[in-house]
Amino acid sequence: MYQHIVDTPIGWFRIVGNDAHIVNSGWINEEDAIVGGPGAHVEWKRRAEVQLNEYFFGDKRTFNLPLFMEGSDFQSNVWACIREIPFGSTRTYSEIAQELGDKNKARAIGTAAGENPFLLFIPCHRIVGSDKSLTGYAGGLDRKEWLLKHEGAFESEQLALF
């Protein structure tokens, strides 16, 4: 396994993968961002850093990276649905549950979103509460707010800070 750490405007972002795929990504504390030398050359490291920089500079709206998704069928379906939420838009847990065919599974959607191993690459920050409030995000609500503002979702979606 290899890791690659990218310094972003909202903190250190760690990407972990093998020779061919990214297997995990997420925000880390500064003290966890200390890394050794350049490590092995794997293609996803360069691609991920370029795409992250393009995203933070406003030039990229979706990611095209080799993600190795390992989860239940339900989790995989939820993650696939989350990937389809457009840049600058949000969905509620209930809306995703309806899209997946069972409006009563909003809580299960929340659980699956919380287990998303690819923060930012699978944009679970785009999921909000039914009242359009910002709710749970493994990267922290401050980052969620920043990302949604960066994408213009506050203006287009009339989101609320509670």
| Strand segment tally | 5
| Largest sheet composition | 3 strands, antiparallel
Straight-line N-to-C gap:
40 Å
- CATH architecture of the largest domain, by name, is Orthogonal Bundle
What portion of residues belong to β-strands? 15-25%
In CATH, the topology of the largest domain is named: Arc Repressor Mutant, subunit A
Query: Helical proportion?
Result: 25-40%
Report the C-alpha radius of gyration, rounded. 16 Å
Tally of separate domains: 2
Helix and strand succession? EEEHHEHHEHH
Low-confidence runs = none
CATH class of the largest domain: Mainly Alpha
The strand order across the widest sheet is 1-2-3
Tally of individual helices: 6
Counting helices, strands and paired strands, the structural category is alpha+beta
Query: CATH homologous superfamily of the largest domain?
Result: Winged helix-like DNA-binding domain superfamily/Winged helix DNA-binding domain
Inertia-based shape: globular
Present the secondary structure layout.
Layout (H helix, E strand, L loop, with lengths): L1 E7 L2 E7 L4 E7 L14 H14 L16 H11 L7 E2 H7 L6 H9 L12 E2 L12 H10 L2 H5 L5
Parallel strand pairs: 4-5
Antiparallel strand pairs: 1-2, 2-3
Keywords summarizing the entry:
two-stranded parallel sheet; 162 residues; three-stranded antiparallel β-sheet; 6 helices; 2 domains; 5 strands
